[in-house]
Amino acid sequence: MNNFTSVNEVANPNKLVQQVLDIKQNTSYPKVGENKSLALIFFNPSLRTRMSTQKAAQNIGMDVTMMNIDADTWNIEFENGTVMDGSTQEHIKDAVQIISGYCDLMGVRTFANLQNRHKDYEEEVLSKFLEYSSVPIISLESAIRHPLQSLADLTTIAESKIQKPKVVLSWVPHPKKLPQAVANSFLEWIVETDAEITLTHPKGYELSKEFTDGIPISNNQKKALKNADFIYAKNWSSYSNYGQTPEVAQNWVITAKKMNLSNQGKFMHCLPIRRNVVASDEVIDNSLVYQQAKNREHAAQAVLQNIVEAL
Ligand code: CP
């Protein structure tokens, strides 16, 4: 493995999930990261990704540096050829080349801005890191994908040992406009497993066909939840009416009553979660969300180990 920005860079996703499970079983980790350094660059806030990736790196002996772009450094210019006489002081081309000179591996978090679909789906910022970095890049969530989250999610599902689990990805309400990254990524990873996946969302919240091709889609949440083993809840804004949040008449909150439609299904969410907006307290308190969050550490460690060993 060189970069880790989507499932497409992983030769065998199921083998990688098994590696994550093996790491979780062992507490004596190989110090393959000794004398190597990891720079974690955040354009957006984070709790889990930041702490789990730092912990994973430390588990294998790596040194970690973190930077919050908004708070810690100059305003970054992304456009080529710009006369930089305004508010930006450092060009992304210069910043990435310089940061990659200080580390052996770089992680970057850069959310969709939800203003321009073309720029987001072309991965405007991540692609510049890939272009200008001289070291491997790990996505800590990009405009359209969140692969470390998806790897932890698949690991969590695999831990149940259910053969051919029925998994439902359900759109849920949220007061803010959110990107499609977690949902896109979950779909492109889950189709690599033996799971039977169904996507449910209100009309107007269709995801990009790039991620939903061949996946059964229902606009009837209750029908979709029937007999599900896992209910993965996530909000996203509209792809077709990009970044907008068309009104939804029906109630899409996950409640205990809705969970009862499932096959004693387990509730999953990437977190952070707005309680009693996305799902009820009762649902969240009886869910897999902490297991998912813990698996973020083991997933990050597997990815770091593979990349460091290939350096
Ligand atoms: N799930 C997740 O990526 O959490 P953070 O945004 O807190 O990192």
TrEMBL record:
Stored HAMAP family: SOTCase (MF_02235)
Cited SUPFAM superfamilies: Aspartate/ornithine carbamoyltransferase (SSF53671)
Residues covered by the Aspartate/ornithine carbamoyltransferase Asp/Orn-binding domain: 182-305
Name of the protein described by the UniProt record: N-succinylornithine carbamoyltransferase
EC number, as in UniProt: 2.1.3.11
GO molecular function, one term: ornithine carbamoyltransferase activity
Keywords: Amino-acid biosynthesis, Arginine biosynthesis, Transferase
Class of enzymatic activity (EC top level): transferase
Protein purpose: Catalyzes the transfer of the carbamoyl group from carbamoyl phosphate to the delta-amino group of N(2)-succinyl-L-ornithine to produce N(2)-succinyl-L-citrulline. Is essential for arginine biosynthesis.
Annotated ranges, domain Aspartate/ornithine carbamoyltransferase carbamoyl-P binding: 14-159
Matching Gene3D superfamilies: Aspartate/ornithine carbamoyltransferase
Binding site for N(2)-succinyl-L-ornithine: 141, 174, 234, 274
Keyword match Nucleotidyltransferase: no
InterPro entries membership: ArgF'-like, Asp/Orn_carbamoyltranf_P-bd, Asp/Orn_carbamoylTrfase, Asp/Orn_carbamoylTrfase_sf, Asp_carbamoyltransf_Asp/Orn-bd
Keyword flag Signal: no
Record field: catalytic activity: N(2)-succinyl-L-ornithine + carbamoyl phosphate = N(2)-succinyl-L-citrulline + phosphate + H(+)
UniProt family annotation: Belongs to the aspartate/ornithine carbamoyltransferase superfamily. SOTCase family.
Biological processes, Gene Ontology terms: citrulline biosynthetic process; L-arginine biosynthetic process via ornithine
Subunit (UniProt): Homotrimer.
Pathway in which the depicted protein is active: Amino-acid biosynthesis; L-arginine biosynthesis
Binding positions (carbamoyl phosphate): 46-49, 74, 109, 146-149, 270-271, 296
Organism (species): Fodinibius salipaludis
Classification via Pfam families: OTCace, OTCace_N
